[in-house]
């Protein structure tokens, strides 16, 4: 078995653990943010509804800011207040409500899991972290621990990005914080620390501390309720540990939790020396041609053709303007021809590549993809008969477009198209777009 890590990386003093819990919980009681899922976790008497309410919040909060989630959460809980209600919803409705929140498979998986609880578990939420993780698709170790501790009072720790940062600083853990060895140690530590009588509050307090005080770039150590337990803070105040380590310190050079010898403590960084991560792989670059096909609707208002994406993969089941992934470095002429061929399939009639009007490029950063949409438009005079044998497609007004399950990236494409139309209709500013022009701001989901 591997040797236990040196004492400075652990919480081995029960008195210190007790003091840290008390300080953190007292701070949480004073300073916690008022959030709708926290209210439900405390006021909802029905255990299954309570677990469901926490579950929805935890899934929405993955990779997404609290401020963004609140409105989505309230609308979701109003529409589907119970597992049974969600189980009866269609995927289309779920995607529509989720539109703009990003990482779309989360909503789909949540609904699939709700259906499973209703059909296979008689509507009863599993009550422990172990069962939640085992029985619910899409529920990993973190989400299971959060639901079990917050909804059902199970004394089990949680480790998310905020907790990783706080724990690495509290115990000067500078080895790669995304490595399985370090993550395992952090889970052990979270399980040691979690308060036995208020586990849900303790876990939320630790995450709240990471979100509001022990933030990534400029932590507010002076206001921190646990600074007296923080090794990184102590090190910032008192400088490097002595060259010859005492019994509390790590062995020289071979500690699995210390920063590598090649990356020593940088005093200009202070506590932000921790945590450290191995460099991320840069996102993959992709180019996609997309075309805003436009016709006049019955009242003269523009209508746009949207088509549904496949039910698996990136943005599964969402609607988009007809789009086509492009090879990198494709010449413009070839790009237009390929897009025209693609459109011909949807429209059932020949499309002249020259008729496609270039609008600009819209960049959208997904977590692992740097996506450039090369946007064209094509106004249509006559009607187009859509082939029902192809993927689902429909004509929508602008309002219907925004109410549909479309990604943020597609909303940016439409915005770029409208901007171009406005410029064209303005006598002063009317202009043609040049290739390479950025038609919409970069954004991420
Ligand atoms: Fe984070 Fe500073 Fe508090 Fe340490 S003292 S836990 S670094 S905010």
Sequence-ordered SSE layout with sheet pairings:
Elements: H1 14-31, H2 36-43, H3 47-61, H4 66-79, H5 83-88, H6 91-98, H7 105-120, H8 129-135, H9 141-152, H10 161-170, H11 180-193, H12 199-212, H13 231-238, E1 284-296, E2 302-308, E3 319-320, E4 323-326, H14 332-347, E5 357-365, E6 369-379, E7 393-396, H15 398-403, H16 408-425, E8 438-440
Parallel strand pairs: 1-6, 5-8
Antiparallel strand pairs: 1-2, 1-4, 2-3, 2-7, 5-6
Describe the protein in words.
- It comes from Dicrurus megarhynchus.
- Its cofactor is [4Fe-4S] cluster.
- It is an enzyme of class 3 (hydrolase).
- The chain has 445 residues and is of the alpha+beta class.
- It folds into two domains: 7-241 and 254-273, Orthogonal Bundle (Endonuclease III, domain 1), CATH 1.10.340.30; 284-425, Nucleoside Triphosphate Pyrophosphohydrolase.
- The protein has helices at 14-31, 36-43, 47-61, 66-79, 83-88, 91-98, 105-120, 129-135, 141-152, 161-170, 180-193, 199-212, 231-238, 332-347, 398-403, 408-425; strands spanning 284-296, 302-308, 319-320, 323-326, 357-365, 369-379, 393-396, 438-440.
- Strands 1, 2, 3, 4, 5, 6, 7 and 8 form an eight-stranded mixed beta sheet that branches.
- Helix 2 packs antiparallel against helix 3 (47-61) and helix 3 (47-61) packs antiparallel against helix 4.
- It is globular.
- It starts with 13 loop residues before the first helix and ends in a 5-residue tail after the last strand.
- It binds iron/sulfur cluster.
- Iron/sulfur cluster is lined by residues 166, 169-170, 213-214, 219, 221, 224, 226-227, 230, 232-233, 271.
